[in-house]
Amino acid sequence: MTLDPSRLRPATRLVHGGVQRTHHGETAEALFLTSGYVYDDAEQAEATFSGKVEHYQYSRFANPTLSMLEQRLALIEGAEDCRTAATGMAAVNAALLSHLQTGDRVVAARALFGSCHWIVSTLLPKFGIQTEFVDGGDLAQWKAALSRPANLVLLESPSNPMLDMVDLPAVAEMAHAAGAIVVVDNVFATPLLQQPLKLGADVVVYSCTKHMDGQGRVLGGAILGSKKWINDVLQPFIRNTGPALSPFNAWVLLKGLETMALRVDAASRSAASIADFLAEQPGVIRVWYPTRADHPQQALALKQMTAGGTVVTFEVAGGKDGAFEVMNSFELILVSNNLGDSKSLATHPATTTHMRIGEQERARLGITDGVIRLSIGLEDPDDIKDDLCRALDRLNTAKPVLAAN
After folding, report:
1. Strand ranges (E), 15-109
2. Domains and CATH numbers, the chain
3. What tens digit of pLDDT does each residue of 130-179 get?
4. CB proximity list for 88: less than 8 A, separation 6 or greater
5. Which pTM was predicted?
6. How far apart are CA 164 and CA 330, in angstroms?
7. For residues 112 and 84, what is the distance between their CA atoms, to the nearest angstrom?
8. Is residue 381 reached through a cis peptide bond, with omega within 30 degrees of 0 on the bond before it?
9. pLDDT of 352
């Protein structure tokens, strides 16, 4: 008897979704490390390439291990279809360039990951594509920008690193009226805490490197949407440009998905507790966490998300020197530009992930030199708090020296 995936809850889909067992009856998903495939005869090869029969052709186009991952992701996202890519940025790039052409127009939220910002601000204009940035939380700016025809809207919600929220249904309605599809980078929320397709988005992109792997092992990306858009728009681009995900990485991601619900739930509960803790500490100027009462868009976060997520952003006194003092004092928390890991990771966005967007743009986004992005892992939250206490104590001890400098 075959399970009906529509009857399964999210955590179960993450374990059983998309499995295609071979005749050997393996328990774990099979890893198909193959570049090509064999045909019964020349006629079958011809029929495969002409689309008359379904048969794997080449792992740049499709692979059984990738197919299992794509089906599982589509099930958990509530999407009709999915394609994977080598990295999260390959997924973003494919989603945009497959859809756009010279003369098109893109409207994007200003609060984007540094590389996504570069694609919109620098790469797309090279192809004659017009781009415009707006403040994602300001519906008036969206209304003004989308009062003219557009072809694509790109946004993150919550954003990296300041955890800004965007009203997805409102923006989607305006975007569709302007003729645009809406592409949402949902990495910070994960499909467990927010499902943008149900809120009006057309396409969702992920860096699977983050929570889906969740243990700092492999790179990967995913693009999800309607079957028609995936087949007619995205698939030809992926097939011919080749941003293919490694079957081995896909297999690792499949195993990571089995525990994602447990990891995201545990890390989100810890993050909420740590955000409250940080807000009370000397030397901390401000804390950002979507579901805290002092987040300016708390009501929207509670409406669109089922929890606040695994990332806490906070600002310390002393600017860059203060932030570096804190980060260099950590004994448990690791300094890294990754997130969504089982280990707690701290990042200084102004000098790493968002360095290249420039000082002026960082200022508009509120990314000061004192801001630290903290991705909460699976350690005991009290141990994380102890590490933060030690680091902040050293900051407060060093304040006179920092002020003198």
Report:
1. 81-85, 105-109
2. 8-257 (3.40.640.10), 260-404 (3.90.1150.10)
3. 999 999 999 999 999 999 999 999 999 999 999 999 999 999 999 999 99
4. 187, 205, 206, 207, 208, 209, 210, 219, 220, 221
5. 0.95
6. 27
7. 21
8. no
9. 97
